[in-house]
Specification:
By secondary structure, the protein is mainly alpha-helical. About 55% of the residues lie in helices and about 5% in strands. The longest helix has 25 residues.
């Protein structure tokens, strides 16, 4: 795939992740929706047009090219048991790995956290040995896994961190403008449950796409965040206790 194609494909995914339609983009640019679709399908963007779109999206053209390059290098999105076990056994190793997949430089990690330069070098070598990163001279790092890496269900990391993360995340008032905590019980049909599950999957995918794209942006102006979603067939225990017991006779 050519560099131009990579950039335009990344731009389309960015528009989708930001929930911006071709019609909305066309209105901002003073063009017809058909013209926008033609530009993308024929890949006939001038540099001026590309810069105009980036301006509308509040996105630097350089950052867009970085996103395209990172997307091209995307690796596996799951870890092996061996990799998970090594991370679970060393909290600092896990922390450095977390910082790297979220776009932190080695220099920033050392300056912001209680990890010395020598210790960080050792941890980077260990991550390289585990095939999680590819370590280059001057501590340049290339990730060998996707930024949206998932833990194996009931694997070493899940068993170690699941309850701790859940408690840490939920032990909060959720009163700030950027916070959301919503709960709504209901009685749904099978068809409605399928619709809800599909929408949840779509939201989670969008969240991860945005998080991956934003790693190419400067660290200043980005915020560490968490998205927790839970949905299942459920009856409140208080109601279950009131249910009449059916006679066996």
């Amino acid at each position: 795939m050519s560099r131009t194609s990579e950039i335009l494909d990344t731009l389309k995914k960015y528009l989708k992740a930001k929930d911006i339609t071709y019609r909305q983009l066309a209105d901002e640019m003073g063009l017809s929706e058909t013209s926008i679709k033609r530009l993308f399908s024929k890949k006939t963007f001038s540099l001026k047009r590309l810069e105009e779109i980036c301006r509308i999206l509040d996105l630097d053209l350089f950052d867009l090219t970085v996103m395209a390059r990172q997307k091209h290098r995307e690796g596996e999105n799951s870890l092996s048991i061996v990799q998970e076990q090594a991370l679970a056994e060393d909290p600092k190793l896990m922390s450095v790995f977390y910082f790297l997949i979220n776009g932190w430089s080695v220099e920033t990690i050392v300056s912001e956290y209680e990890i010395s330069a020598d210790e960080c070098d050792r941890l980077l070598l260990r991550l390289d040995q585990l095939a999680l990163i590819e370590l280059h001279p001057k501590n340049r790092v290339r990730l060998l896994v996707s930024k949206n890496v998932f833990w194996q269900k009931d694997g070493p990391l899940w068993r170690l961190y699941y309850h701790r993360i859940l408690k840490d995340f939920m032990d909060h008032g959720f009163e700030l403008p950027k916070d959301r905590l919503l709960f709504s019980p209901g009685v749904l049909s099978e068809a409605s449950m399928k619709i809800i599950l599909k929408q949840i999957d779509r939201l989670f995918k969008q969240y991860n796409e945005l998080a991956e794209m934003d790693t190419a942006l400067p660290l200043k102006g980005r915020y560490s965040a968490g998205l927790f979603i839970a949905f299942r067939p459920w009856v409140f225990s208080m109601l279950s206790e009131l249910r009449k017991q059916k006679s066996s006779g």
